[in-house]
Design a protein that fits this description.
By secondary structure, this protein is α/β, with parallel strands linked by helices. It has eleven helices and ten strands. Bound molecules: zinc ion (ZN).
Length: about 375
């Protein structure tokens, strides 16, 4: 085809397009609505048979007029509708997958969180039971915690415990020493305990933890002449007894904390759960040896009122066992939920003060430690 023919063809084409009522590009459907209109044009509604012959013919004319164009549009429309349908399905599937994932992640998170809390709670309960068990075993069996034999001290030296026999052994010392010791504080009960001690004019020993909200209580304990000892900063058995390293870190953190608040460099320690606890992952002997190297003395107990029991039960348990020992180390709990300690304390102090040759004293450097032996 020559260039001239080509030009002529172009002109012909131009005339063809100019004579058209609308440009083929204009007639191309632009969006879904255009397609729908085109579809309607190419598919006129079927008229009722009652309609006139003229109308039917008109419909056929319109239909044939749409003819080729309508067919192409219909195909496009079908494609678009199909792709829309697939797209919607993909979207729904994605939304469903996201929903499932969210539910799954939430479930895993909350179940783990719940399990962790449950485990911590159980660990606390086990240790509480351990403390209760240790105290009750000592009381029920009459075990001689500190006897006539020499007691091996943590620093490796032997110290005689003369005059420290139990009443059950038949030999009585001249004076019975009773130590009121309070673990787990300070707490919302510390002030009340201090008020009671003040009222009866007795001094006690507080084995405290590291608590930020009770600075005033630490100071008052020391200012009023009571002894202060350590009971671990965290009181978290999992952390504290995970390794010798974690035990050391916790110990010195508390020792410094108490010193900063009160000016007292305490060397008294009470193991959470007692020195005979079976929860520690570290051999307790390793921890005892470490305390010995640090010149820190640990103290257990031989009389215990019980945990989670009424004040009447505490009074009964304590008063029934005090006279069995010439050196009586009583364990109490100073904790927010231990109102029973506050209620039992006056009656216990009155009972002790009613005993002959019996004095209530705080722990000092001269105190022979009561220590559990396995
Ligand atoms: Zn404790």
């Amino acid at each position: 085809m020559s260039l001239r023919d080509s030009n002529r063809m172009d002109k012909k084409d131009q005339n063809y397009f100019l004579n058209r009522e609308e440009s083929p590009f204009e007639s191309m459907p632009k969006d879904k609505e255009d397609l729908a209109q085109a579809f309607r044009r190419s598919h006129p509604p079927v008229r009722a048979s009652s309609g006139s012959t003229e109308d039917s013919r008109e419909g056929i004319k319109e239909s044939s007029k749409g003819g080729e164009f309508g067919k192409r549009d219909r195909q496009n429309l079908q494609k678009i509708l199909q792709s829309n349908s697939i797209f919607k399905r993909i979207l729904i599937a994605q939304a469903f997958a996201i929903l499932c994932l969210t539910v799954l992640v939430s479930f895993v998170f909350y179940s783990n969180f719940g399990i962790k809390r449950q485990c911590e709670k159980m660990a606390r309960q086990i240790l509480d039971l351990q403390e209760a068990y240790n105290g009750l075993i000592l009381q029920n069996t009459g075990e001689e915690v500190v006897g006539t034999e020499s007691v091996e001290m943590t620093d490796g030296t032997d110290k005689s415990t003369k005059g420290r026999k139990t009443a059950a052994s038949g030999e009585k010392s001249d004076v019975r020493y009773v130590y009121l010791t309070f673990d787990d504080g300070p707490s919302s009960k510390t002030e009340k305990i201090l008020d009671i001690l003040d009222r009866y004019g007795v001094k006690a020993t507080f084995f405290v933890c590291g608590k930020k909200a009770y600075e005033g209580e630490y100071k008052r304990i020391v200012e009023e002449g009571h002894s202060i000892g350590m009971h671990s900063f965290s009181h978290s058995y999992g952390k504290l007894y995970a390794s010798l390293d974690s035990f050391q870190t916790d110990l010195h953190k508390l020792q410094n904390y108490i010193y900063d608040l009160t000016g007292v460099w305490t060397t008294y320690y009470r193991f959470p759960g007692g020195s005979s606890n079976t929860t520690s992952k570290v051999n307790m002997q390793e921890l005892k040896d470490y305390l010995g190297r640090e010149h820190i003395t640990y103290f257990d107990w031989n009389v215990y009122g019980g945990d989670g029991v009424s004040s009447d039960v505490i009074v009964r348990n304590v008063t029934a066992n005090i006279t069995r020992y010439d050196e009586c180390m009583i364990l109490f709990h100073d904790a927010n939920d231990k109102e029973s300690t506050v209620e039992a304390l006056p009656r216990i102090i009155e009972y002790i003060q009613s005993l002959d040759n019996t004095v209530i004293v705080p722990i000092t450097d001269k105190t022979e430690p009561v220590q559990h032996h396995k």
